[in-house]
Structure formats: C-alpha cells, structure tokens
Amino acid sequence: MGTFSAHIRVGNLQAQAQSRELELLVDTGATLTKLPKDLLAELRIEPQFSLPALTSDNREIIRRIGLAWISIDGRSGAVPVAFGSRGTGSPRCHHAGDLGPCG
C-alpha cells in the first residue's frame, strides 16, 4: 500500500459543468474517496446515506456518503464520496479499477 498525488475534476452528477479541479492524495489502501464537506456543499452534492468506517487508529466512525461525478485521465463516472472535514489531512481517494487511481 502506498500514496501518490493525482489531478481530478469533481462535480455534481446533475450539473457536471459545475465542477472543480483538485489535486488529491491517493491512498491505495483507502476504501472511500473523502472530500471536504464544504467543497461538496459548494458543488451541491448532498449526502445520500451513511456507512461505518474504521480510522487509522481502529476507531469506528459513521461517514456520510454522496455521489459525485469524477474525471481522471480521460475517464469519468459516478463515484461514492465521503464527507470529510478540512484540516483532517488532504482530500483522499482510493485505488479502483474502472476510473483509474482516484475513482
């Protein structure tokens, strides 16, 4: 498992023109793409459901999850994103097959 950075475009599923370009830290061991909740609010991405998640110190927390449109390396698709807080590390994404390193 490791980390590297990648550039992506993230947007609203219904209004893909409403999007932002970001540089993310990709953690190949992570299971969800986590983005700052204020960015997701700006893009009008709403939480759809919640999931339990384990932190690096093995605590269980509940993460709110929404769906975003993410583009990377010429590939795009709907991706579940966890609502995170600013100041809790860089935005992160997981390594998945369909969209490449940040999908």
Number of strands: 7
Summarize the amount of helix as a percent range.
under 10%
CATH architecture: Beta Barrel
Note the overall shape: globular
Please compute the radius of gyration using only Cα atoms.
13 Å
Strand residues, percent: over 45%
CATH superfamily: Acid Proteases
The biggest beta sheet, please? 7 strands, mixed
Q: The CATH topology, please?
A: Cathepsin D, subunit A, domain 1
Description:
The protein has one domain: Acid Proteases (Cathepsin D, subunit A, domain 1). 6% of the residues lie in helices and 52% in strands. The protein has one helix and seven strands. Strands 1, 2, 3, 4, 5, 6 and 7 form a seven-stranded mixed beta sheet that branches. A hairpin with a 2-residue loop joins strand 5 (60-72) and strand 6 (75-84).
Briefly say what this structure is.
This protein has 1 helix and 7 strands. It is mainly beta and 103 residues long.
List keywords for this structure.
seven-stranded mixed beta sheet; mainly beta; 103 residues; 7 strands; Cathepsin D, subunit A, domain 1
